[in-house]
User: Which sequence fits this backbone?
């Protein structure tokens, strides 16, 4: 499979992180070239020790996550820029400085998750950050099955690493989205993911979604919905359903009842498999996707500096 | 002057938010470091305004918000979210939050949100 989608994602998320770092007033931020970390390699082994590592996990049934790591000096510099009142050259990290660094990492990694969601066309949520000071690169064996990318950022002369642990479902969805947008072209293998020659693929559980249609509503319209309201979808009654496997477009079909259960009869499939089979839907049929286009005016947002929180 | 409960899992952010609230002429009557503690402290203190982080361990800010609104439908809560959490903002609005600040924020933004909440 092509590695370009992962690299595109790494570049987009690293830029989001650099923007947040810059907003802290930490000084010049240089973003390096993203790279793929080979399986079996430790993504953090190039980091000078001792290091401060902050990681967040994706939540909502998605594996993977994001890691931001730097030296103690780098963490002290970021904490000082946040306004923790610490000495940026201190060889140790005080509790308040560590908390400030963790908050900085939280904001950076949340922004990275938002950028990931923008690339994927879906919401990507992360849990709270876990931060620790380590004297040797932690074992990454537990995430060896993920796609892993790494970007170096130089922040006021100190090296920082942004490591992204990307689940396979993201890669497949991203490949399809990029192809749909026609902004980049990928080979067909990238859309299909692993091949059936890979033995483990046969045992993998996949999720099939059938989408009836979608609607776009403003946040105000969504908040104004009451029981009994009717939302018109963008699909006619006799239009076929769109099918997705793990979020990747897979074909189209017709909704029918099969022994009292909703089922879909496959009419067209985008990968070379037999059509005409009726597939019972053991999971919910996803009816609609609502996209917030406008933010109500009573939301107080700020895209300015860090004065108060630093 | 408002009596404010500050909720954030980061010690640093509790200090930043508390300092801003005091600078804005309000009183910080308590702090909590997760959603579980937030609900307990809300019951004890019945603050005029609660500032609530979204991503926290034990119990996240959205769950805590729903429980606080269940306890007091008129509770005035200022949500503090990071960039990239726009979907959570919509969930928070549906749960009853009406005031938001997005981190990193300026002190004046937070004070304005607290003032608006008690206005």
Assistant:
């Amino acid at each position: 499979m092509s590695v370009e989608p992962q690299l595109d994602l790494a570049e987009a998320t690293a830029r989001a992180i650099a923007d947040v770092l810059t907003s802290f007033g930490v000084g010049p931020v240089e973003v390096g070239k993203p790279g793929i970390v080979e399986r079996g390699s430790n993504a953090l082994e190039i980091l000078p020790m001792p290091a401060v590592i902050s990681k967040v996990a994706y939540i909502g049934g998605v594996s993977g996550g994001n890691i931001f790591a730097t030296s103690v000096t780098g963490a002290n510099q970021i904490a000082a820029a946040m306004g923790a009142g610490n000495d940026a050259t201190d060889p140790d990290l005080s509790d308040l400085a560590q908390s400030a660094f963790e908050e900085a990492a939280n904001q950076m990694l949340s922004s990275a998750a938002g950028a990931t969601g923008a690339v994927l066309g879906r919401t990507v949520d992360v849990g709270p950050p876990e931060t620790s000071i380590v004297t040797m690169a932690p074992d990454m064996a537990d995430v060896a099955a993920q796609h892993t990318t790494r970007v170096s950022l130089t922040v006021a002369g100190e090296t920082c690493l942004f490591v992204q642990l990307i689940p396979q479902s993201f890669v497949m969805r991203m490949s399809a989205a990029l192809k749909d947008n026609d902004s980049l072209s990928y080979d067909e293998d990238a859309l299909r993911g692993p091949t059936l020659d890979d033995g483990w693929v046969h045992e993998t559980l996949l999720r099939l979604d059938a989408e009836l249609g979608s609607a776009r509503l403003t946040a105000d319209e969504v908040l104004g919905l009451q029981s009994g309201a009717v939302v018109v979808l963008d699909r006619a009654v006799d239009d076929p359903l769109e099918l997705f496997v793990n979020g990747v477009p897979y074909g189209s079909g017709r909704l029918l009842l099969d022994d009292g259960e909703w089922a879909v009869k496959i009419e067209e499939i985008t990968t070379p498999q037999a059509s005409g089979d009726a597939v019972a839907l053991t999971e919910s049929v996803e009816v609609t996707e609502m996209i917030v286009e406008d933010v109500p005016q009573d939301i107080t947002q700020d895209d300015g500096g860090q004065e108060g929180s630093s | 002057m408002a009596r404010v409960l500050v909720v954030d899992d980061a010690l640093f952010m509790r200090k930043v938010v508390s300092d801003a609230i005091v600078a804005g002429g309000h009183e910080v009557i308590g702090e909590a470091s997760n959603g579980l503690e937030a609900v307990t402290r809300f019951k004890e203190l019945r603050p005029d305004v609660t500032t609530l982080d979204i991503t926290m361990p034990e119990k996240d800010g959205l769950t805590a918000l729903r429980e606080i609104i269940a306890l007091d439908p008129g509770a005035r809560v200022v949500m503090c979210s990071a960039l990239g959490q726009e979907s959570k903002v919509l969930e928070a609005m549906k749960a009853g939050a009406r005031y938001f600040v997005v981190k990193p924020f300026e002190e004046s933004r937070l004070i304005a949100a607290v003032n608006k909440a008690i206005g």
Remarks:
- Residues 206-310 of chain A form a domain with the Surface presentation of antigens (SPOA) fold (CATH 2.30.330.10).
- Chain A touches chain B through 47 residues (CB under 8 Å).
